[in-house]
Design goal:
alpha+beta; 7 strands
Length: 177
Amino acid sequence: MLNLFARIVLVVLLVIGLLALIGCFLPRDYDFQAQLKMKAAPDTIFPMINVPRNWSQWSMWSPDRVPGLKVEYRGNEKGVGAEQFWTEVRGKGKMWITASQPSQRIDYQMLFADFPRMESSITLQPDGDSTTVVWQSSGRLPSGPFFGYFAWLFGRQMEYQYQSSLENLKQVVEQQP
């Protein structure tokens, strides 16, 4: 009986070890995006993305939507140098705008907990009386045997959250006069 149990434990440990070894060689890079067409001019949308304080009106990561989330703003109110800091149950984070082209795009970087820096942009593409908003992020997850598996899941989850946030942004900007 003990011999059978030892064999089962050994097989389980070998499978876990093999999965960990494979995970070490999987890519940890991610690159994802979401986009949505909105019936609003770029000039209407731009202040909503260029001012971090306005993100609470549409982002999935706002104190109204995430219990226990505390947000603080520093630096410039808008554009390059505008910063947002937050704390929540999973850790602390920081987002800061690194480039801002009025009514066209912002670039920002983000740090969360012990994860490496994420590079992101939100681009406004005029299309007649509408604007297509494209939100893109890329980066590399930390090294470790299971982050290669997590990179794929992370990208899918973030795409969903970006798309949901863009749906919220669409509601906000399309209701403005």
